[in-house]
Amino acid sequence: MKKCSILLSLFCLLLTFNSCGEVSRNKPIAKNGVIDLSNWDFLRDGNINLDGEWEFYWKETLSGIQIEKELGKEPKFIYQVVPSNWKGVDWFGETLGGFGYATYKLKVKFPENSPTLAFHNLDLSSAYRLYINGKLVIEQGSFGINPNYYEPSYKSVLVDLEPVSGETEIVYEISNYHYSKGGFWESMELGERRKLYDKVNRSYQITSFLAGSIFLWALYHLGLFFMRRQDKASLFIALFSLLIVMRLLTIGERNILDIIPFLPMDALIRIEFATIYIATIVFAYFYRLVFPNTVGKNTMYVLYILITPFLGSLFLPVSIFTAQIHYFQIFLILVCVRITIAIIMAYRSDTVGAGLSLIGFSFVFGTVVHDILYQNNVINTMNITPFGFLGFILFQGYILSYGFTRAYLSIEKLKESLEISNKELNILKDGLEDIVVERTKELEISKSNIERLNEFAKTLNTSLELDSILIKAFDYLKEEVFCDSMILLLVDEEKNKLHYHKSVVSQNSNLDLENKFRGLSFPLDVSAGLFYHVYKRNRPFRFAKVWESRLNESNQKFIQLIGKHPGMIIPLSSQGKVIAMLAIFSEQKGSSFSKAQLQLVENTAENIATAVTNSILVEEMNREKFIADNARLQMENAKNEVVKLNEFTKKINSESSLSQIIDEMFDYILKSFEIEATLIQLIDPKKKELYTYKTTIPTYATKEQLLFAKSFRVPLNERGGIIYKTYLRKKALFVPRPPKRYESELDEQIFTKLSLSSFIAVPLVVQNEVIGIAYFTSYQKPMDVDREVLRRISGFCDQIAGAIQNSLLLQLTEEERKKSEKAKAEIQKMNEFAKTINSQNNLENILAEIFGFIRKNYKIENCVLYFLDKEFKELRYLNHSGFDLLNDENVNFFKSLRFPLKEDSGFVYKCYQRKKHFYMKHVPKSLPFAIDKQITEKSGMKGFLISPLVNNDEVVAMAMYGINDETIHLSSDEVNSIVGVSEHIASAINNHFLLKKIEEEKQRSDSLLLNILPKNVAEELQKKGRVNPVEFENVTLLMTSFPGFSQITGQLTPEELIAGLDLYFTRFDEIIKTKGMEKLRMTGDMYLAAGGLPVGNFTHAVDACLAALQIKNEVNRLMEDFKDIPFRPNGITIAIHSGPVVAGVIGKSKFNYDVWGKTVTQTQAIRRGGVGVSINISQETMEKVKRLFHIDNQRMINTYEGEQFPIYELLSLKTDLADHSGILPNEKFERLYTQQKRGAKILIK
């Protein structure tokens, strides 16, 4: 093992040098995208890796970077350490993934007059282009910024460089859409051409050497397997070696591409990963075959389960299964750790070859850890796992040679051992006859001893008494071992003691020994001394001398009784347990028991133990038989009692009356147990106390005792004393005598008032719940009750408890049935009442029905209702019934009565506030509130009920029911029923007010709608929910405005402006309405109305002209009458035009009835073209009204479309058709107007 340790230390040291050798040389590295090689001599210093910080441009190409610089932009970049990959790199807050493309850039300062250089690259991930000073040098795969134009390549390159010197720019464009991580993951090696080529060639040679060596090793082991098929370890190490050869060709320089140049990149990567996955499990199974005791089946099952996902992932895209390599590396290390533990365990168990195997595997474990660190860019060296496997193979060869050598040596030793055995066999053959003669004599002696022992065993088996067995055993042993006394001690395991049973002595011994040992016992512990030692070990103990000073107290006592004689203590065992002990002593001087005698006694002890066991079993059987006979007698007595109890149970179960059941119970108790008095208390669950249901007290008991027994109650709390404790414990209680100190006042009352000397309290329990307690006592003499009697009484009470419970349930069921029928009738009555009042719409009729219902069902004549006025926060009179005997003054008092919502309103406010009824059965002489006193005095009520009428948890009214008859008292059910009626009253009153409110809101809504829309339009909107637009062929529009309105508004406050417009437009509304026209809208100072819609007529043009004359006159009048208001217009301009329009309603929430069309815009043009204070009408309107009105001053205006449009000024009605003002029409006008209204044309000359 010392050599193994030295070799293992040497391997670790070499591994350390391999990992750190490059670091010891002071090679330049790139800093901030620049590496200075100006002082590097490639011929002297050798090759160099261009590692360090390169400029990293994400999703940029060299041409893109150059374009941005030409445009004056500075492209974004970071410094990225090479070799590494870009997955997980923080790119200005963005964490990069494995896919994408990037540009790596490095400035190299070469020395002057550099030799011819070349560079060497292993694979990069996973397609790239190399530029030197902007010139493309090589492209591996197809670099692409899009996956569709991309092709990966994992082949290493060795390329000569053109002569370089000074500062040179090296740029790599790398793209990856194939592998799970992309980037510059292998170093770019730069060196003098010849040296670099030599190094790469050496690498090829080493790979070839390793692959060839391992392949030959695989062939060797395959040969061993075919020669010896049971050696499966050779097969698996051969398979493992072949997998390693395959992997060796797919990594590093990837030599397999030289053998199979057309191999796809996907297949290359899958072979690379598959070889290491399969090799791992094959290698583990190899060690399972080599060390089956330390690498178990369960370990392999776990490895199979863990490797399965990795093998399955090989069928997925490369980008997916390559992303799992970190998890596999963890798994690989765990496998190596498990194998290491297995080898160490095998070494500790002295398994052949374990130490050498541990050293060989250390090469594998160390190189695997090294390469994992290298592949994760933790260290920058090279893959050395193949060297580790080569070292492992060398040690396996050594182990194999060592095994062959051991096998040869074993054969030599077996040959020598066989020769020695042959010599011994010849010697044994010569002395065999003498041995046979001696053995024959010994067998005869043994046969004689066995015959005597069998006779002794037969003698013992004929006796079943323990004392007889002991005497026969003593007689036998006295002849065989010459003993003088024998003492039997029995083991009592229940009491854990060893007690004396009997002793037998010879005639020469102390005959009084029996009396000395009687009652002697020892505890089965250390204090028993030698006896405990024999009992614990179950082995005999022989002693020739007695050293009293060495004995403990128990043994000294025993020796003092028996004397200091040699003896032995023999354990008697049955079925492996010590059941007794024999102490045998000899009183002969200078004698002691020999080992042969001890062996004889020990053999005899087995028969004695069997006889003792049988005797003990017979005694126990007799004792059990005696107990069984007594139990049988008790069972017969119990059976008779059970039969009698069952007869009683059948009898009480046939009864349904609780009183009859308890009478039967009392009778049974008095006859069966001679008990004079019995009392049953049941639980009142509402009051939580026990009350007396029935009792039997002797005739000589006093009336006070009978009254107390019937009336006393036991609270179910601490005041209940011993009865309450009995209730909690659910167990029977027997009090044999009055206690000296009572626990509660109730206990003292029970004993003193009933003059009890003793009593029994038994809880009646059904399904673990106490339903009552039964009490039993005797007055003339104290009760003599033992446990059996108490048990029988308790059992009897348990039997009848169910019957009592059932009877109680039947009573409760009957009571609930009656209540249910009564409630059903009440509900039916209330439903009929509800149907009646719900069929009424008028509140008066509803209240009349309600008052009649109350009068009929509850004999209450007087009832007053007060509703809640939320606005004034008081209760006001609504209606009443009764009061027929009251005078008008008192009736008017109730009608005018108000209840403000405050404390002074007495019981009414209290009920309102609490939302609960209040019933006063008798009105007292003094009442706390003055209002309540007035009510009772005015009404003459002897009792009253106040009930809040609640609807949706809100009091809507209060009902006051007066009772004038002193003999009428309402029960709680009647009060609850009246309260239920009050809910119907509340609903009726609430519905009445809601309907009234709905009607008012409907009228208000209709009125508002009519103010906005014409009546027939509003009706159509209400019916259909919409209004269809209508085209009118001929209507007349009237439009007003105030000249200089803009200047006027600038001088007024908003309040003054609104007040002025309201004054004038209100008068306009009145005039328009009288003329049968429709107001359409108001905007600013514009007022628009129309005639001839929504219902057509023949007078719309005349109506508009009349309205215009009156509006003009009204403006003048208002200016004269309201000189003090700030809004003072300079008159009014009115435009009138007739023609076709389209009318309709727009809007959803705010409706607007309006008109559209050319007529509207032309009317606006007339208004705009008006001059001063005037009424301007169009030619269309003029043609319709010229026979009735004075029209003058024709002039032309421009419409909004730029057309010429004639307008005229309306002056007044014609002289013969109006009064002197020319505004108000006379009777002649009215006749003509009526004719035109009917459709006649007006003809005036």
TrEMBL record:
The chain crosses the membrane at residues 204-226, 233-251, 271-289, 301-321, 327-347, 354-374, 386-405. Residues 621-648 form a coiled coil. SMART domains: CYCc (SM00044), GAF (SM00065). Pfam families: 7TMR-DISM_7TM, GAF_2, Guanylate_cyc. Keywords: Coiled coil, Membrane, Signal, Transmembrane, Transmembrane helix. The keyword Transmembrane helix applies. Residues 1-21 form the signal peptide. Residues 1036-1167 form the Guanylate cyclase domain. GO terms for molecular function: adenylate cyclase activity; guanylate cyclase activity. One of its GO terms (cellular component) is guanylate cyclase complex, soluble. GO terms for biological process: cGMP-mediated signaling; response to oxygen levels. PANTHER family: GUANYLATE CYCLASE SOLUBLE SUBUNIT BETA-2, SOLUBLE GUANYLATE CYCLASE GCY-32-RELATED. It comes from Leptospira yanagawae serovar Saopaulo str. Sao Paulo = ATCC 700523. The keyword Signal applies. This is GAF domain protein.
